[in-house]
Amino acid sequence: MIIDCHGHYTTAPPAHQAFRDAQLAWVSDRSGPVPQRPDIPDADIRASIEDNQLRVLRERGGDLMIFSARASSMGHHVPDPGIARDWARACNDLTARVAAMFPEHFAAVCQLPQTPGGGLDDAVEELRRCVEELGFVGCNLNPDPSGGWWTSPPLTDRYWFPVYEAMVALDVPAMVHVSTTTNPAFHDLGAHYLNADTTVFMQLLTGDLFATFGELRLVIPHGGGAVPYHWGRYQGLANRIGRPGRATELLRNVFFDTAVYHQPGIDLLTRVIPTENILFASEMLGAVRGADPVTGIDFDDTKRYLDAVPGLDLPQIYEHNARRVYPRLTRPGS
Ligand SMILES: [Zn+2]
Q: Is the pTM of this model over 0.90?
């Protein structure tokens, strides 16, 4: 079985985005009523999946995708907690409908209603609702709700503990995933995402989060940003701060996905990071679409790259690691 741990509902019916647009307009001009989410027919959801993610999943030989709302649209930089709550619920309810419609092919992961510097009670409540009532298997946690200004404390700070306590109690992991950036210095997909992946690993290296939360599991997407490429730097920095071996210790709790879009990148990832810490992912249909004109391979067809690595334990990367990190995938009745 092949489990892709990182996919987004980037093809949601237009009415869903229209609701978001109305929300954002209301934030600027509150003279009208608070926008209400639209009724989206099952047929629209079915068509938006069958012609897109499900078609590509099947074409590439995949079975199950761990699926969440479009990450760049989470929009946590909008400071209104009510808007964040309504938007997260609308996004998660839509994701839940996809998973219910195609239970063999999609397992849901939730967006959390975060705001810059805001409390995390709403995030915990939404996480509990999604897991306990809707059968979700994980969450996306944004380490920078400000959208590229990094105004929140590092992920090792007590500020985040309520979310971690709920994650441990529910036995779900988080993928550490930022949303859009409002900082014009950063491109969302080419800079901000990879910056965040790299930044979070360094936060974890210098902090002591897993001494408090030994069971917590975090997935760093996009192949871990710059981390595998600079593994020597992290080992050396761990020595420098008096914590030799620290980078490797983090691998008890930290995992990397394979959303890396060329063969040399996958070769490096699988050579540097232990196989038990690598989860298959394509992030399709996502940031990079189309085929590399040199190889003819779709950039995000990461299975092709993994299949070409000699001697790799593919069942572990394709299935077993995902089941270990997302144990709710395998629960009876799920
Ligand atoms: Zn993503």
A: yes
